[in-house]
Amino acid sequence: MTQKKPSTSASRRDFLKTSTALAATATLPYWFTATSARAASPNERKLLGCIGTGDRWKAVGPQAMEFANAIAVCDVDRAHLEEGAEISKKKNAEKGYTGEISLHEDYREVLDNKDIDVVTIVTPDHWHTKIAIEAMKAGKDVYCEKPLTLTIDEGKMICKVARETGRVFQVGTQQRTEMDQRFLKAIAIARDGRLGKINKITCVINGVGASGPIPVVDAPETLNWEKWLGQAPLVDYRYKPDDGKWGKSRCHYEFRWWYEYSGGKMTDWGAHHVDIAQWLIGQTGEGQGPISVEPVMAEHPVELDDKGMPTKDDQYNVATKFLVRCTFPNDVVVDIASEGRNGLLIEGSEGRMFVSRGDLEGKPVDELKDKPLPENAIEEIYGGKKPTSHMANFFDCIENRELPISDVFSHHRALTTCHLANIAVRLGRSVKWDPATEQAVGDEVAQSMQKREQRKGYEIEA
After folding, report:
1. Topology given in CATH for the domain delimited by 179-382+409-448
2. Residue-range domain boundaries for the chain
């Protein structure tokens, strides 16, 4: 099961071999080549390392274990770690694998295990990039939850290393595959010209409530708080109980509402909806993206300084309400809004439709009854393949060494828009953007906010 890091020339040879093999099997049914990972016997399946075993991993981890045997789990919270090990052991047993599972607090021990082929990364956002880069350099294929990065520069680094190593890397944006394919159908409808020229897409991603002051308390004894903070500043642990599942804190699920670790709803739900919007208008490729990002309205629970930094450290600090207007080439506008019906309203010169995880509505949708989409329209959006689950697509691509449906390159372009939206709302002014050079135009502060200072010992090296 050991995999060596490929050289550039080796990657090219692998690509040629893969292309030849695919050509030879082109006449076979799709399932013949796509399900080989699923057909392996228990002792022939890929070996998996799970880095981060908290709440979200309880979905991602078992999904990965449909196709691979978990042999290592890692988390800086011992409670999560032990629970993850038990879940993994049970899932392995269901698949007929009874090998040992090692437990780790330090993710580097997982990456050092040469038997591991694949890793899942389900950590807070500010840890994604460092672990993912080191995993690719260690020869692992990677499944990482969204949003992939904390900053725009981190996205550039991940793309660089992905190209250099040739690893298969799937980002956890399941709207590209699942939800009854509603988003795929919406893109197919638009691409077939049913809405005419696309003029505007409104992405409603909801807002987040303020927390009020959160007191300093001792971190849970199971948690290595210093290691959880990673590249972020070393600060006190804060927590107060409430009626919710997690309470209010700087940690676990609530990390999303602190700019130090994430980007609020803008990168949480934005990573899903803005991704679909840019995919629909063909703005996820190299050199593509918005040309300006305007904060029409934004509210923060704490005051920000002239560099967009929160002036208080005792409460949530991401935007609670916002409306950001992103202008793309050809005068296509994508609004990112906190208020309204969660989903995407897509408006064209000849019609409009709405799509969300539960709905696909509008006259162009109703007209499908009498005028269905061309045969294989969905497959064409999906890269010429029949749609599968998100995790199945990942493991299929591990076998054939193709780009998965949610590759790092397209995700980086969509998430850049979300990061720019946060920069704009934090500065309170429009940001001009050159998507070809990936640079802010005429704004040194906005340009500097493409990266963050990293705490000594946790620097990211690409």
Report:
1. Dihydrodipicolinate Reductase; domain 2 (3.30.360)
2. 8-178+384-407, 179-382+409-448
Q: Tokens 């739900």 — which residue?
A: 269
What's 318's DSSP letter?
S
Handedness of CA 275, 36, 108, 6 (dihedral sign): negative
Q: What are phi and psi of 72, to 5 degrees?
A: -155, 140
Q: Is the Cβ–Cβ distance between 261 and 235 less than 8 Å? A: no
Residue 292 pLDDT exceeds 60: yes
To which residue do tokens 């040879």 refer? 13
Structure tokens at 149: 């990065």
pLDDT in tens, 393-436: 999 999 999 999 999 999 999 999 999 999 999 999 999 999 99
Banded model confidence at residue 21, pLDDT cuts 50, 70, 90: very low
Q: CA 263, CA 339: separation in Å to the nearest integer? A: 17
Whole-number Å distance between alpha carbons of 151 and 252: 20
The CATH fold assigned to 8-178+384-407 is: Rossmann fold (3.40.50)
3-state SS class at 413: helix
pTM (2 d.p.): 0.91
Q: Is there a shared CATH topology between the 8-178+384-407 domain and the 179-382+409-448 domain?
A: no
CA 122 distance to own-chain centroid: 10
Q: Tell which residue, 341, 344, 321, 322, has the closest CA to residue 333.
A: 344
CA distance 119 to 72: 9
Residues 6+ away with beta carbon under 8 Å from 438: 152, 156, 289, 416
